[in-house]
Amino acid sequence: MSAGIGKYEVEGTIGRGASGTVYLAMNPDLAQRVAIKELAPVLAGDPAFIDRFRDEARVMARLDHPNAVRVFDFLEPPPAAYLVMEFVDGASLREVLSLSGRLSGEQAAGVLKGALQGLGHAHGLGLVHRDVKPENLLCDREGVSKLADFGLAMPAAGAGPGAAGFLSEGTPLYMSPEMIRGEPVDLRSDIYACGALLFELLTGRPPYRADSALAVMRKHLEDPVPSARRVARAVPAGVAKVAARAMAKLPADRHQTAGEFLAELEQAASRDYGADWESRASIKAAVATAIAAGAQP
After folding, report:
1. Are 268 and 242 in contact (CB under 8 A)?
2. In terms of pTM, does the model score above 0.85?
3. d(CA 247, CA 84)
4. Which residues of the chain have pLDDT under 70?
5. Quick check: is 223 catalytic?
6. Out of 73, 89, 131, 211, which one is annotated catalytic?
7. Are strands 145-147 and 90-92 parallel, antiparallel or unpaired?
8. Per-residue pLDDT tens digits for 245-288
9. What b/e string do you get for 98-129 counting C-beta neighbours within 10 Å, with b at 16 or more?
10. Torsion on CA atoms 222, 148, 37, 21, rounded to nearest 10
């Protein structure tokens, strides 16, 4: 890895995943830190994918919402491809959960509210995220959750694993049945993933568990929608019902928009936790703990 990517000065590595490696870098023109995602070779080496992604990068650059990580630039020095994004000084939701375990009901609703607001903004631009999961929700030092990693996002029309030619796109724990079947997906596939995420935030475990990714995907297809109350009896009926509806097997039976999901979640949270539930929803302290743990040698 060279010391620079285009004009950006690389300072270190933030993380690695199936879709690529993310670096911390400095934009010298603005004295601004950014995150740069280097797309995995299997993605950057596919001309058809890059053609589509170049076009969609222009759309992703329009992301402008406090709950969505902004996209600044797209670079293509052959044979690589890079996406330049907002750097969030904080921790991923996965890092928070690994230390804190299950969130309180109010915190779960608060985190998901941020995710749904960011997602609704992206959907309004015609983008389907396709990989909503705790690793792709970044929480800043104030506890604000931001939907990140739009590197696999596609336009709503025809989006899905088949659109880029990789069935492995997405994460089995949160994949909708239609995505698993390789069918075209729309924003309701993201709704399903958010339902699975809400289930995990409320119970401390994902909705379906098995010994292999294939077995997990089969459960998404064939098993009944699980009840969060059966896993954690302290979960109130209202928010449990919201999570279950979002995970309906048929897209038509789910919430049809992120806004509809959020409205029902807020209503359930007010009934289950009280009208002042948001005053107890902050995860600022948990984020600080995760940041401190990550800074330790």
Report:
1. yes
2. yes
3. 32
4. 1-2, 56, 151-169, 295-297
5. no
6. 131
7. unpaired
8. 999 999 999 999 999 999 999 999 999 999 999 999 999 999 99
9. eebebbbbbbbbbbbbbbbbbbbbbbebbbbb
10. -50
